[in-house]
Amino acid sequence: MDPVVLFFLLGVIARLLKSDLRLPEAMYEGLSIYLLLAIGLKGGVELAKHPIGPLLPQVGGVLLLGMALPLLAYPVLRHVGRFGRPDAASIAAHYGSVSMVTFAVALAFLVDRGIPHEEYMPLFVVVLEVPGLMIGILIAKLGAGGGLRWGALAHEVFLGRSILLLGGGLAIGWISGPEALAPQAKLFFDLFKAVLALFMLEMGLVAASRIRDLRRAGLFLLAFGTIVPCVFAVIGITTGALIGLSPGGAMLLGTLAASASYIAAPAAMRIAVPEANPSLSLAASLGVTFPFNVVVGIPLYHRLTGMLHAAVP
Amino acid sequence: MDPVVLFFLLGVIARLLKSDLRLPEAMYEGLSIYLLLAIGLKGGVELAKHPIGPLLPQVGGVLLLGMALPLLAYPVLRHVGRFGRPDAASIAAHYGSVSMVTFAVALAFLVDRGIPHEEYMPLFVVVLEVPGLMIGILIAKLGAGGGLRWGALAHEVFLGRSILLLGGGLAIGWISGPEALAPQAKLFFDLFKAVLALFMLEMGLVAASRIRDLRRAGLFLLAFGTIVPCVFAVIGITTGALIGLSPGGAMLLGTLAASASYIAAPAAMRIAVPEANPSLSLAASLGVTFPFNVVVGIPLYHRLTGMLHAAVP
Amino acid sequence: MDPVVLFFLLGVIARLLKSDLRLPEAMYEGLSIYLLLAIGLKGGVELAKHPIGPLLPQVGGVLLLGMALPLLAYPVLRHVGRFGRPDAASIAAHYGSVSMVTFAVALAFLVDRGIPHEEYMPLFVVVLEVPGLMIGILIAKLGAGGGLRWGALAHEVFLGRSILLLGGGLAIGWISGPEALAPQAKLFFDLFKAVLALFMLEMGLVAASRIRDLRRAGLFLLAFGTIVPCVFAVIGITTGALIGLSPGGAMLLGTLAASASYIAAPAAMRIAVPEANPSLSLAASLGVTFPFNVVVGIPLYHRLTGMLHAAVP
Amino acid sequence: MQTHARKLVVIITESPLESSLVKDVLALGAHGYTVADVRGGGRHGTREGSWEADRNIRMEVICDAPLAESIAAHVMQRYARNYATTVFLADIGVLRPEKF
Amino acid sequence: MQTHARKLVVIITESPLESSLVKDVLALGAHGYTVADVRGGGRHGTREGSWEADRNIRMEVICDAPLAESIAAHVMQRYARNYATTVFLADIGVLRPEKF
Amino acid sequence: MQTHARKLVVIITESPLESSLVKDVLALGAHGYTVADVRGGGRHGTREGSWEADRNIRMEVICDAPLAESIAAHVMQRYARNYATTVFLADIGVLRPEKF
Ligand SMILES: Nc1ncnc2c1ncn2[C@@H]1O[C@H](COP(=O)(O)O)[C@@H](O)[C@H]1O
Ligand SMILES: Nc1ncnc2c1ncn2[C@@H]1O[C@H](COP(=O)(O)O)[C@@H](O)[C@H]1O
Ligand SMILES: Nc1ncnc2c1ncn2[C@@H]1O[C@H](COP(=O)(O)O)[C@@H](O)[C@H]1O
Ligand code: NA
Ligand code: NA
Ligand code: NA
């Protein structure tokens, strides 16, 4: 098993055994700033090597994917899960959006196995994150009385820490190009996987602490949090193949589709849909889907890609 | 003098001159999490190269050493130092347990000089830490009225941050092995000594701030904090030679025996023996023994090893 | 444009767009401790390669420069800017003192272009910082009633974090020499530029948040904060040439002269000259001069050096 | 030395509301405010700051009694329904009545 | 708007006691609590947080007068002898009496 | 259980004053103090801790009424003119009168 996953399990075990181990909040924040910038820079450097024109149809395809996912999740939550409109919309937005750390683990999975993939994939993270949040908010507000402060929301979505650092890193990497960024590479690229391991320790602590909320939320969320990622992965991998990504790239897009947000979405939903209960969506995305993806999902999606990618004409 | 020691002295000087230099608490915690994991991972990777069977007798020897040390320290504290039972037991537990940073400095000392040693020594750190704490608590409670909440205590001892991270690192290193951990090596192994230097700056600041407490505690603790480590080092080196460690390994075991805890022990003792005055034990372990070991002790124990190791049959 | 500057601009943009991006305070402090130590160590290692004797006249020249700068700035602030004595003295002290990060950016500028320079320049940072603060305090207090607590002030100036870490790093580097510090190099030297980039992100956030104060302070400070650095740069470059520095060294001295303090000076002035309004001096040094130097000044001073250095006999 | 009676309004609530609360409180007429990071537990479960979504702040506002009432009422009406919120008031004395 | 009289119990003590205090306070019947990290000094010397062993917390509990008394008495009896501890009570007003 | 009336003095001011305030307060006769890091806003603008120069602390001192008065007066006279400062007093009850 990958050491990155072992660090995650160490965190889970520590919390389940009620150890008082805690990463200081500033360290957690510092590590996440580092990861977002590093992923962005890496993607930007690769983007600088490609002409942008041919990428535009791919961006369009990913945008459509991002809008489709929450629209698929919502009716399941509303009618099968029997959640009220605000909770269903909020959870849908979490699953329409993405988890950066899941993406990083999948990236490390491919790099370790030497599997090639489009290096500019971080661009698609941004493209996928935004519509997920937007559609989730729209669903919650349409039909519900009360005006929607679009300005505040666009601000929350586009200027939230995740998009800003990832997008900023992309831009800096793109403008600077590989040579100018060489002195940065030792920190941002060479140390990436080890910093990810430290971050996964924290993720383990946090994910385990969500398990209690889960017990209250019941069986439906457990099923939802494991089945939906698999379905979304299939949709994402197929989309990737259709827009011409390599198997590695399609697998990454599938993982992104399968992942659920637990940083950007909770913050945006708390402001846009305050009536939604935040512990439901976090229990599902952080307590179920994140561990599932990291331990079971990523190797599974890799296999699925092997079967699906060749099947797409 | 080793730069690591110079960083320590810079911290001591800064505090004695009443500079307001302070490492932020989160940075201190982050550095200590790093050091514990790095030491554990390194040991685990080496452990993966050895069959476990032949190590078991060595583990047994170190366990016995760990139980003997606090039992030796206690009567001295009680009868020569004239401390009450709680204080004597608490200080004995501090000296029965170990200091991770002292171990790290001794490790760096050997690496710098190219002196070979058993690379799986971090295993013995865990084995030595636990019985020291347990025996200390037992002494305090036996005879004293009032029940002992063993559950809470075992929890405190085994699931305290130090043991958990060190043991977790050992396990991850052992399961993963050297190849899988190669991408982690750049952070956890190559940067180790420099991070240790930063940590030593903080240790200097903290150790110097304990000197005031020491003045109140008097001459006995000063003598205790310098003589006992030398005696314990001799016992540790001899034990190391007897259980078949190389001179480098025996010197590390001696340093571990000579070192006194100032992280795990204070936390455990505050809960197990609340009547004990925590500033006494910290003044001794942090204000006397830590600086003594780092500046004088480690080179001394290295010499002692030269004399003792050959003498053991 | 250098990635380091792009990180700065990312911070500025994030703040102007009112993003909630913030580096945790502990991270900011940790990064600044790292930068100060790294610069000091680097300088100290180089100092170890030189005999000290021949440097003394250079040190003398830099000391004179440090005393001249605030004395030049004060009358301009008092009579052109029409500030009261406390504010004029406080701002003069900020501009008489130096900005470590500006120095680090200029250093990276030279290293990137392979331009040689005296590697012991960090020594001059210390030599330039102290007289600037001292003279500023003296101006404020002379003539103003009320005694001056010299002890407390010398303490504040010499034992402030900046001087202590920079000086401590210099001393450790000097005592240890290049070989003993080799294991530290991977953290302190190889990662330097990337850590600087992270720090510049924070500087961008903070500098942009000072712009509001600037609006209240008016046009004079805007002019002062851009013209004075250019004049001081010319004086610094010329001084550098006169005391025999290489063009690269003279350019660094010019940049130091042109830079204004925003860490040591605000802290010292708040205690020495409490009547001065701290937001005026910070708006100028952090809101105007720092961005100006980083974006426009450093390339400009590099050109100026080309013209001036040859002209000095 | 004479002290002047004022009210201290204390609001303990979810961190993301900070900037919005500051705006509201100043708009209602307060001259200042003080905020600290805290953790806690109550009807909405444990908010120990173990995740970004679980952080609390504690805001103090010193003001006269009528303003204290309107701040408390505003917070109850706008935030207390959907957000973990605790509000209490205390009688205090200040030295510079014109400041608060 | 009417406020209802309640007590605020404030406990300042050593950090390692936090989880134990939370358990005790809830067991005694409090509906919530708020904790902040602080530093300080008193009879047990300076506790400036310069070392892990030297950290203080400040816990606030809002409750009715009888519960306030029993919380204060419990803390005094269980912790105050061996741990650096300060306890005080204040009169406050709350808006939702059923909550506290 | 009987409580004894004391005063709580709360001082909110700029962080660099902390060590100086601690010295003053103990010199005036207080037996202890508690300090927390806070942020805030008031007459001197927003002090959100976004820069080293912009940090606030909040100090609490429990003492008898005359000492509370002299602490408050001293702080007003020595610091309030040039530094961002807020001081208020509250009535509280303590359990161990000899301690404060
Ligand atoms: N009885 C109480 N005493 C002190 N603080 C409380 C109390 N009840 C709630 N709180 C605080 O207010 C926050 C929100 O309360 P609640 O809405 O009850 O979850 C909690 O997270 C606590 O920090
Ligand atoms: N008079 C006081 N005013 C405010 N806080 C106090 C006072 N005395 C003690 N404290 C706080 O209570 C903690 C424990 O007090 P003590 O047991 O007296 O050392 C101290 O570290 C302070 O944080
Ligand atoms: N009305 C108020 N309520 C609560 N805190 C205040 C108030 N006014 C000022 N403060 C605090 O006191 C500090 C200094 O106040 P000032 O001197 O008015 O800028 C501010 O930064 C706030 O933290
Ligand atoms: Na998704
Ligand atoms: Na020992
Ligand atoms: Na200057």
How would you explain this protein's 3D organization?
Chain A is 80% helix and 0% strand. By secondary structure, chain A is mainly α. The two termini of chain D are 17 Å apart. Chain D is an alpha+beta fold and 100 residues long. In chain D, strands 3-2-4-1-5 form a five-stranded antiparallel sheet, with helices on one face. The model of chain D has no long low-confidence stretch (mean pLDDT 94). The chains are: A mainly alpha (313), D alpha+beta (100). The A-B interface holds A 1-3, 6-7, 10, 13-14, 17-21, 23-27, 30, 108, 112, 190-191, 193-195, 197-198 and B 24-27, 29-30, 33-34, 37, 155, 159-161, 164-165, 168, 171-172, 175-176, 180-181, 183-188. One sodium ion (NA) binds at residues 69, 95-98, 232, 257, 259-260 of chain C. Residues 69, 95-98, 232, 257, 259-260 of chain C line the site of one sodium ion.
Write a compact overview of the structure shown.
The complex is a heterohexamer, with three copies of chain A (313 residues) and three copies of chain D (100 residues). Chain A is an all-alpha fold and 313 residues long. Chain A has 15 helices and no strands.
